[in-house]
Specification:
With 476 residues, the protein is an alpha+beta fold. It is built from 20 helices and nine strands.
Length: 476
Amino acid sequence: MNNTLRDELLHHLDEGSTGCLSVTARGGQLRVYVMSGEILASDSPEDNVQLLRRVVVSGLVDRGRASELMREATDQGLPVSEILYGVLDEDQVVGLLFDRFRENVANWLCSETSSEFEPMDAIFVPNIQIGHDSRELLGQIEVTLARTAPLRSDDGFRTQLAVGPVPPQTDDDRVLVEVVQRARSVAPILRGSPFEELYTLDRLMRMLDSAVLLKHDPDQDRTFVEDDDSDEAETVANDPTEVVEVPEAGESEADDEDGLQLTVGLTGHENLSPEELAALEHEMSLFEDIDHDVGRGGGEGHFSKSRDELNADRIDLSERVEMPEEIAAGPAEATAQVPNGPSVSVKYSGPMLSNSDARRKIEVANGVLRVLSQSFDASNGKGSGPSQVQLLLDGSPTEFAVLFQKVQAAEDGSASPEGLLANLRRRPAAEHRRLLNRALSDIIERAMNVAAENLDDDALDALLEGCAGYQQRLGL
C-alpha cells in the first residue's frame, strides 16, 4: 500500500475537501471522490468490464445477454451499472456497486503514482456511496491489503493452490474451492471467481490459514490445471463497441453463447516485463474460448469438446443457498455482496472505536492531567502545571508520539481532545482502540511518576485519588 496516498486522502477527509483525487491506472485514471469528510465515490476504466464479468461468472446473465448489455450501455452513453438496474434485482446491483467502489479505493491506495487533486463544487458521478464510515473503511482495506500481500505480489499470482483436507465453512469458500478444482494458480482463480479481486484474495488467504486450501507443488502432482494460451480475447477498455460481433444467420449456438470477449488486466503491475505482463493479462482474460481450436478467423474453427463436456466445466451459481452464518473475524463490518443472495457481514477487525467513546477515554486522562497541573501550580507557581503537562505530551515514547504530535496543553493542564482525535484519525481505524488505550495509560502512569518525584504527600494523595480506577474507566 502507498502510505503517501493514504495520508493525502486522510488529509482531504480531515479538511472536509470536495473534489477528485486521481492516479494513473491501466487504461486511464483511477479516481476517488471526497466530500464533507467522506469518500463519496470511486471509478476506474475497468468498472464496466468487471461488473459484467461478475454477473456472467455468477450465472446471473449469460454471455450473449452480457454482450447486449455492453452494446446497449455504449450506444446510450451510460455506465453498465445503470443498465443492470433493468436486469437484476436492486439489492443485487447495490451489492455489486459497493464491492466495485471498495475495490477501486483499494486499488487507488496501491497505486505507485502520485495523485492529483481537483477541487469540485459538487460530486455528480455514477456509483455514489453514502452511509459508510470512510475512515473505518480505509482501516478495513488496510488490514485486508496487509493480510493478502503474499498473494498480491507477482510471485503470489503464480502461486499454485490445491484443495486441502479441511472442508470449506462458508458458501463463498465453497464456490472458490470449486473454482480451484484440484489445483490451480491464483491468477486464473481470480478470473473464475464471482467476487471482486481483493475479497477473493482475502478468502483464499483465510482458507490457506485454515488448511481448506494448500500451496501446491506441481512437481508432485501433474493434475495441475494449466491456464489456456488462447489469444482470442479482446479488451473492452480499448473499444467496448468492438467486443461483440453480431452473430450472422446460421452461426452455431455455441458461438452465440461465447459472443462476449473481454480481457481485464491486473492492476499494480506496471513494472513487469512485456512478456510477464502479457502472460498476466492473459490469465485475467474474462471470457476466453478456452476450448476453441485455432482457425476461427477463417470461419473454419471448431470446439475441441462436445457441448456436454463444455457444460460440465461450468460453475452454476444461479441458485445459491442463503448464507447460514457470518464470516467472522471481529465486530467491524464491511459488506460483501453474494450474487443472487443476501449481503454477507464480513468482519476484518475488533470493535471500532466510536467518536464518543474516544472522547470519554480522553476525558479520563485529562482528569488526571488537570489534577497534576493544579498541584504543580500550587507548589511551584501558576503556569508550571501546564508546562509540566506539555513536557509529558512532548516526551511520549516513540510508539505513541503519533497521537500526541503537536497537541498543546490547555491552561487547566488538559490535552486538546480535537488534536488527539485528529491525530488518531490519521491511523487505520483498526488501530484506534488499542493505540488510544495504551497511549493514555502511558501518559497517566508517567504523570503519577512525575508527581511522586516532585509533589508533597498531600498533593500526591490528591493526584492518586483522581487516578483511582483509571484502567476501569478507560475500559481496559
